[in-house]
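WARN retry 2 of 3 for item q-0093 after timeout on previous attempt; input resubmitted unchanged.
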Amino acid sequence: MLGVAFRSDLEHKGDTHLWNKQTQQREEPPMRVLAEPAGTAPSYTPPTPRPEPASQPAAIGQAMNIKGQIYAREHLMVDGEVEGSVQSESQLTVGPNGKVRANIKAREVIIFGSVRGNVEVIEKIAIREQGSLVGDIKAAGISIDDGAYFKGSIDIMRPEPKVTSRPVKNEAKVQAAAG
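OK item q-0093 returned
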């Protein structure tokens, strides 16, 4: 005979089921066994997958003060204070209350607060209104809004041209004439 066991963490009062924290803490309720009718196999229903929630950025809040190295693979929002170095494989946003005294390397950087340090960005850096950056920038693209503050140098990087492995026709003719 097959049976299914489960614990009841509910206290029964009439027809309603109420959870009682005190009962659960004092003693574990006994296990009850429910009998399956003879000749039937227990059925298994796999859990339904939950939809993935929208990706929220990792956050360093206003009340946080971090000293050291930070490495993130996801979008990072800094609205507190950070000192040291920050690396992100994704977007780094310095919020309006954020104060960063660190060198930054990221795919994309958006500054609404204050940054003191050099910034190296693969794609684009944006210094928004009321944002400030004191340090050197190395990026493929840059945007500085009216009302933003920037002091430092800018090095615009160009993507490296792709190298082909086949020789160019002119090089082949020169090699044949020389040989």
